[in-house]
Design a protein that fits this description.
Helix content is about 30%, strand content about 25%. The protein is α+β, with helices and mostly antiparallel strands. Strand 1 (about 25) and strand 2 (about 30-35) form a beta hairpin.
Length: about 220
Amino acid sequence: MSGNEGLASENAALPHPDFPSAFEFNEKLGWVPLGWEVKDLSNLLEVKYGKDHKKLDDGKYPVYGSGGLMRKAEKYLYEGESVLIPRKGTLTNIMYVNEPFWTVDTMFYTIPKLQNVAKFSFYHLKTLDFTMMNVGSAVPSMTTKVLNSLQVISPTSELLQKFDAIISTYHAGIQQRAIQNIELTKLRDTLLPKLISGELQIPATEPRSHAPRGNA
């Protein structure tokens, strides 16, 4: 093994300076990072019920149910960062939103209680098996009692801030690409019918002429 390979191997084994280098055992969650707290979800997020949307006129604000986006309405129920958790139906369809939105009665929405906790809570909850928390019989169901008492790990405020800053850059890139895809789709839908009908034609291009190479 070369000196560089040995150095790379040693660096790979070192813990990240922002992450605890040791773990401690928790009876319910197993091994958790040293210094992180184990809290009820109610300490991180306030769980709120969605509301009926049938009387809302169409508009620009997304309306979410346990299956995802349902429609767009004239009003919104909450504005800002939120983790959406299904109340009935597909319990694993947990979502993160950061815009004005409405949720129906099959989807809880949440209000963050700590700074920079929304994105962390979303990714943490996505690792949990919500099908094991089902309290329904015919239809999979979730209750506020189960959610509020759900034990989760909570890092320090400094780590939450760093995590949020890193993840926010990825979310910004995803959002920008989504906007570009919408614009490209609109452009395609405008130009393609005109091209098919012959209303719009692409000019023929002349083949490029290559000058003869000189003798070496």
